[in-house]
Write a structure and sequence with these properties.
The chain has 850 residues and is of the alpha/beta class. Helix content is 59%, strand content 8%. Helix 16 (398-445) runs antiparallel to helix 18. The radius of gyration is 38 Å and the shape is elongated. Residues 182-214, 828-850 are annotated as: Disordered.
Length: 850
């Protein structure tokens, strides 16, 4: 009979473990589709079962007189942990969990194991006593509750032929959820990519279904968690940071990491040895004071002191190695991030807010610091807790170990619940912080406009409102952390009190002196220390992971532009756009076509000017020629070679571009002019400056070419900035020069100087101008307008004199503007209402105009 009862007790313990295991495995597997259920009835039933279990455990302690047998105690603790896990998951800790249907299959099979658990308890109690006992009544009540739960949840699974949960594949991200190993960015080796063609991803009318780079960076983490299928699949995406954590080719860094792990193990061993030496020393010392002879007092004191000194040495050496690794990692991370961003495509930089990028970069090493926290702080503490528990179990028996194990397990559940609850809070906090920073930086950058529009007070009030919102979110997080830490602290203290009482009672029953009790207190302090630090884990992990997640998304945005292996030989400077169509998504997300079947040829050495209203695609042609973007259809050729087949860097080596808003770097005039050509001599620099009409003005400055011009050239006038940038273009001496409004900010004298410089060049030069007087010298002038379909088209072309003689569109432009008025005023929104000359010189689509 007693053998059967012992077997039933072992079986009951196994069922308690199975109920926990079923639930933990089930919540990580895919959820079967099922109707939505109200959670409140299930929570009420589970709470009633928990109260019945507490009553059963009280009866167990009372009937035993002090401490029950270890087998029923272990079974009850496992059953209690299963209930706590289920209640914790059913009662949502955040809005995300509230809107997500629980993994009901996990509950079903856990409840089934618990039902068998209580049936075994009833059989065991019936064998022990023929009369009803309180424990038998409690087990019967729990069986009824479990039967109710199974009936409520069995419908979706009644047709399952086997235990479904163990045949579910643990949820891993689908292949299309994040890049394959060969496509994923490997920092820093896999950053040798180019730029992306903006037009290629928007071939279909109505816009692209994929989110833009801006949308990816600002996406809610909660949405990512739902898309990934949970926290752990989402966490696997952070493997992109592994090259920083375990860098390839850095043998010294890897050896340091291994050394740190060895030191961590040594420190853990010393942490476990010190309490034992302390307890033994106190025990021998007590015997010494009691008059007993012992020669081990000084030996134990020496060993105890040596262990403490060794722990200090190990700690400081470990800290030194960690700091060395952090410095190397910070350098590697910053270099890799900058390399990744600088080698990205134009569409990425145009669509992404600089504030989002800067915040992601500023927090570049947080993912690595999170790894350090988990591996070098949390993991040793977990090992310390486990080994301390084993030591206490070996010294004071299974009862104390079970109580402490229950305390640690429940506290871990508290930690994980708090972590889930604070996730959405930190997501909202980071978003609010980004909005606040974006508003502040925008107001400061545009201060002059803000001031001139009389909106200073408005900017101050808007920033204060956003900051107030951010502060409220931070206060909400602080209150949540306080409630969690308070409840966890109370629970751990209560568990400490109970476990200490058991240890003292154990010492009184065995007749031990206070030495073992001191040893227990020391070991329990080793357990309590990590438990207290675990209270701050949710806040730390939520903050770090959510912050690092922005950088992870940034690194996962890969350049899509592909390059060939050809070189531009021989290079003469001929350009041809063959049946080019190009479109892009506008601000509303709708695809807007710029060109359809545009064909255009430019012979080597020719100077060609593009004129027309804004929005007809003049600057887009520049972007296509420089391959900032690729056309949706057609091709762009240089000297008969498709530029998509050229190797990376080959095309831009033969081009010099002056954009509509020239960029001036913080530095000297010399560094700005020579920026596009390393190793240029002073004579070459001076010649380029003379061509741009800026040399004489530079020489009048105190430090000449070494004059500091400040951020964005704020110490120069608008015309001076434009001419410095133009001198940079001339100094490059490129085969093809593209000038977008090169003289828009200069006076007439400087404009004449620049025109003469351009005319003397024998290089291919493309000009964009709204002031017609600045392009009369061009070999060919191409007039652009918009057709009835809204796409840009060539209206007419020829020299200045030829176009004037045709008495067409250009003639009207010239007469009405006298070379000075804005072209938009002439076109009045486009060419749809303008009668174009019907002389056979215009081909709308597919035709080439020469």
């Amino acid at each position: 009979m007693w053998d059967l009862r012992a077997a039933l007790e072992v079986f009951q313990i196994s069922l308690g473990a199975v109920s926990c295991l079923c639930f933990l495995v089930g919540i990580q597997s895919k959820q079967a589709k099922a109707r939505r259920r109200k959670r409140i009835p299930f929570i009420i039933v589970l709470c009633a079962m928990f109260l019945a279990l507490l009553a059963d455990m009280s009866v167990l302690f009372v009937s035993a007189g002090w401490m029950p047998d270890s087998s029923p105690l272990a079974a009850a603790i496992l059953y209690m942990l299963a209930l706590i896990l289920q209640i914790d998951r059913l009662y949502p800790s955040s809005d995300v969990e509230k809107s997500t249907e629980p993994a009901w299959h996990a509950y079903f099979w856990s409840w089934a194991a618990m039902f068998v658990f209580d049936m075994v308890a009833i059989i065991k109690l019936a064998l022990a006593s023929r009369s009803p006992t309180p424990s038998l009544v409690c087990a019967g009540v729990r069986c009824c509750f479990e039967l109710i739960l199974l009936i409520l949840s069995i419908r979706p699974y009644v047709q399952l032929p086997r235990i479904w949960i163990f045949h579910q594949r643990i949820r891993l991200p689908d292949d299309d959820e994040f890049p394959d190993d060969d496509e994923r960015i490997r920092l820093p080796d896999d950053l040798e990519n180019g730029t992306m063609g903006m037009g290629n991803s928007h071939d279909q009318e109505g816009g692209s279904s994929e989110p833009t780079e801006q949308g990816v960076l600002r996406q809610s983490v909660g949405d990512e968690l739902n898309a990934a299928g949970g926290f752990w699949p989402w966490l696997k995406r952070f493997r992109i940071f592994l090259p920083w954590i375990w860098p390839s080719g850095a043998l010294l860094t890897r050896l340091r990491i291994v050394a740190i792990l060895v030191l961590q193990l040594a420190n853990t061993g010393l942490t476990l040895v010190i309490p034992r030496l302390h307890g033994a020393f106190v025990e021998i010392l007590a015997q010494k004071f009691a008059g007993e002879k012992s020669g081990l007092v000084w030996l134990l004191l020496l060993a105890y002191s040596a262990a403490i000194i060794s722990s200090y040495g190990v700690y400081f050496l470990d800290d030194l190695l960690q700091n060395q690794i952090k410095l190397d990692r910070r350098r590697l991370a910053s270099t890799s991030i900058n390399q990744h961003l600088m080698r990205h495509e134009a569409s990425f930089h145009l669509q992404t807010d600089s504030t989002d990028i800067n915040m992601a970069i500023d927090n570049g090493t947080i993912a690595c610091e999170t790894f350090d926290f988990v591996v070098w702080e949390m993991l040793p503490q977990i090992v310390t807790v486990i080994t301390a528990e084993i030591a206490i179990f070996s010294l004071f028996g299974l009862h104390v170990g079970l109580i402490q194990g229950a305390v640690v397990a429940v506290d871990t559940i508290f930690v994980l619940r708090s972590n889930r609850g604070q996730m959405t809070m930190y997501d909202a906090k980071i978003t609010a912080h980004q909005e606040t920073k974006r508003r502040r930086e925008g107001g400061l950058k545009a201060w002059l406009t803000v001031f001139l529009c009389g909106q200073v007070d408005r900017e101050i009030d808007d920033y204060a409102a956003l900051l107030h919102k951010q502060t409220r979110l931070e206060l909400k997080i602080l209150i949540s952390s306080f409630r969690f830490q308070l409840s966890s602290g109370i629970f751990v203290t209560a568990g400490s009190f109970f476990a200490t009482g058991i240890a003292i009672q154990h010492g009184l029953q065995t007749g031990d002196t206070f030495g073992p009790v001191v040893m227990f207190m020391n070991y329990w302090e080793l357990v309590q220390g990590p438990l207290k630090s675990f209270m701050k884990i949710p806040e730390r992990l939520s903050r770090d992971l959510y912050t690092a997640d922005r950088l992870r998304r940034l690194l996962e945005i890969k350049p899509k532009m592909q390059y060939g292996s050809a070189v531009l030989r021989p290079a003469r400077g001929g350009i041809r756009l063959q049946n080019v169509s190009f479109s892009y998504p506008n601000a509303s997300g709708k695809v807007e076509s710029v060109f359809k079947d545009l064909t255009l040829s430019i012979v080597p050495g020719e100077t060609v000017a593009f004129v027309g209203p804004s929005g007809v695609g003049k600057s887009t042609i520049f972007n296509l020629i420089t391959r900032l973007f690729d056309p949706n259809e057609g091709s762009v050729e240089i000297d008969g070679q498709d530029i998509r087949k050229l190797q990376k860097g080959e095309l831009i080596e033969h081009m010099a571009v002056l954009s509509q808003e020239p960029c001036i770097f913080d530095g000297t005039i010399r560094s700005n002019i020579t920026y596009g050509r390393d190793g240029a001599t002073d004579a070459e620099m001076h010649a380029a400056a003379r061509m741009a009409g800026i040399h004489d003005e530079i020489m009048k400055m105190e430090k000449h070419y070494d004059t500091k011009i400040g951020e964005s050239g704020r110490n120069l006038s608008g015309g001076q900035r434009q001419r410095v940038a133009l001198a940079r273009v001339f100094l490059r001496g490129a085969l093809i020069t593209l000038l977008d409004e090169a003289t828009s900010a200069v006076d007439t004298g400087a404009e004449d100087c620049i025109k003469e410089s351009v005319k003397k060049r024998d290089k291919t030069t493309l000009l964009i101008a709204h002031r017609l007087s600045s392009i009369t010298y061009a070999d060919r002038i191409i007039v652009f307008g918009k057709g009835e379909d809204g796409c840009g088209m060539i209206v007419e072309e020829g020299t200045h004199e030829e176009l004037k003689e045709r008495n067409g569109v250009y003639t009207r432009l010239w007469k009405n503007s006298t070379g000075e008025k804005n072209i938009e005023q002439i076109f009045d929104g486009g060419t749809s209402g303008m009668r174009l000359p019907n002389n056979g010189s215009i081909r709308r689509r597919g035709g080439e105009m020469r």
